[in-house]
Amino acid sequence: SGTGLFIPSPVEDEIPAKSSKTAKITFTPNGPKPDEEILTLKIEDGNNVDVKCNGIVNDAKCIFMEKLLDFGNVPVGIKSKDEIIQIKNQIRSPAIFQVQCDCEEISINPVRGKIVSESKAIFNVSFLSNVEKEFNSMITVNIRGGKPLQIPVRANAIIPDVKIEEE
Fold this sequence. Notes:
Elements: E1 6-9, E2 24-27, E3 35-41, E4 49-55, E5 62-64, E6 69-75, E7 83-89, E8 95-100, E9 106-109, E10 112-115, E11 120-127, E12 133-143, E13 149-158
Parallel strand pairs: 6-13
Antiparallel strand pairs: 1-2, 3-4, 5-7, 7-11, 8-10, 8-12, 9-11, 12-13
């Protein structure tokens, strides 16, 4: 048991005599600072073995190219046309991102990925509401080793006013 930043898989296994097995260790950083942890391999009827794990996170600096995503008036029950938002990676190391949005009315693609050095990620975003309402929300993009980015999203789901004139 440790900080949970380094998680081995499998956690428990049996290795036959004079053989070896591969274990995968997943590092989940909790910020931009380097992390270190000692995992102890408990060996039945033998001596425990300590494995020192070091995790280094590349610094990341990304920005949204847009200040706001505004869909304007969108008819209720009809999916809006896709709007585009972009994130620019401002430094040489690649940036790993994951998109977070709690609103079911918004669809975003892609939701995770990598932005190579000094280039952009392009996101397609659409809006669909089944009820009439003014909509204000936030899209958050978590960047590994960097600050989360946020962009406000606005839309106005309206019931279209349709008039049919008879001859």
